[in-house]
Write a structure and sequence with these properties.
It is a single chain. The chain contains 14 helices and 5 strands. The chain has about 350 residues and is of the alpha/beta class. The chain folds into 3 domains: about 5-120, Alpha-Beta Complex (Conserved hypothetical protein from pyrococcus furiosus pfu- 392566-001, ParB domain); about 195-285, no CATH class; about 305-335. A hairpin with a 7-residue loop joins strand 3 and strand 4 (about 70-75). The longest helix is centred in the last third of the chain and has 25 residues, at about 315-335. It is elongated and about 85 Å long.
């Protein structure tokens, strides 16, 4: 398929037969392109109870297979289909698309229907995006502006989200399989957001201290961080950003590479060592200094712009006390710098 000929997602929206038809469940099969294989038990139980008492109120959406007339594939309504089967129903109401979609059209419609209405997980979106990239022969490691434009037309995803999902796909196969297994088996100890947060530090490790990846490739780093979070050594995913701050300071020469290498090795080997501890030992003071410099520049501008004649009499004393304290603090830190 030529990339210039790719249509917008709205152009993939299907035409339907005018009437809702009743189809036998035995003639319907799940969409093989739908990456969502598991639904929460609570949602499933609620749907089964609803269908059992009121029937299928919202018809599913299907298309008829070209090579097997009378056989249908689900575009929307897989949960309703599975719930109906569990209740041993024989038929289900359905909207039927007038023609079988191509793979790209199928994927685009799945994005429109499921990602908008049924909240695909980030992993499900990433896996669907991978199929689209494969169909269009786009290398996920070499996305250019034209590629992004094409993907946006098909999926309606923002450039930021496309890059986010591609970052998830850049992990080794074992990492992706681990998270797929977690979703399928309803394991609650794996958080896909950890992959998003870890991507930047792993890229920077590859750049500034690559030798550590010989012993700790990405799948081992992911496992270590998952276990540290499970053991409450890491409390939030945002803590991971401090690893990037350490590595940026290594990159610009503020932190010795050997020191950073040893600190990261300690962090990976000691299950009780926190990110905060290695951050405090390396980059914290450097980052605090950056913040103080930016704040000082703003305070200086603000002070110079103040019209002291307009300060109310009641506030002048308070303002003077604050300035006096600020001057003492500045003098103390200047003495330490000498």
């Amino acid at each position: 398929m030529k990339l210039d000929n790719v249509k917008k997602i709205s152009e993939f929206l299907p035409e339907f037969k005018r009437r809702i038809e009743i189809i036998e469940l035995d003639n319907i099969e799940p969409n093989p392109i739908n990456p969502r294989r598991k639904f929460s038990q609570e949602q499933e139980d609620e749907l089964i109870e609803s269908i059992n008492s009121k029937g299928v109120l919202q018809p599913i959406t299907v298309y008829e297979k070209k090579n097997k007339l009378g056989k249908f594939v689900i575009l929307d309504g897989q949960r309703r289909f599975l719930a109906s089967k569990k209740l041993n129903l024989k038929t289900v109401p359905a909207h039927i698309v007038t023609s079988e979609p191509s793979i790209i059209e199928n994927l685009s419609m799945m994005f429109h229907i499921h990602n908008v209405h049924e909240d695909w997980t980030d992993l499900a979106v990433a896996l669907s995006l991978e199929k689209i990239l494969g169909e269009l022969h786009i290398n996920k490691t070499k996305l250019n502006k034209n590629n992004l434009r094409v993907i946006q037309k098909i999926t309606s995803l923002s450039e930021y989200k496309i890059k986010k999902y591609v970052d998830i796909l850049s992990y080794s196969k074992s990492v992706i399989e681990k998270f797929k297994d977690s979703e399928i088996n309803d394991k609650m100890d794996l958080d896909i957001d950890i992959l998003t947060e870890l991507r930047t530090p792993i890229k920077m490790i590859q750049k500034v201290i690559p030798s550590i990846l010989n012993k700790y490739p990405d799948y081992k780093i992911v496992d270590i961080l998952i276990n540290k979070k499970k053991d409450k050594i890491i409390t939030t995913n945002k803590e991971i950003r401090k690893l990037s701050k350490i590595l940026r300071n290594v990159e610009i020469g503020n932190i010795n590479k050997q020191v950073a290498l040893e600190k990261f090795r300690d962090f990976f080997e000691n299950k009780n060592l926190t990110i905060e501890q290695i951050y405090s030992d390396t980059a914290e003071t450097l980052e605090q200094t950056k913040i103080v410099i930016k704040s000082a520049e703003k305070i200086s501008r603000d002070i110079n712009n103040i019209d002291t004649r307009k300060i109310p009499k009641d506030n002048k004393l308070e303002f003077d006390v604050i300035l006096e304290k600020l001057l003492r603090d500045i003098e103390n830190i200047r003495k330490k710098l000498k």
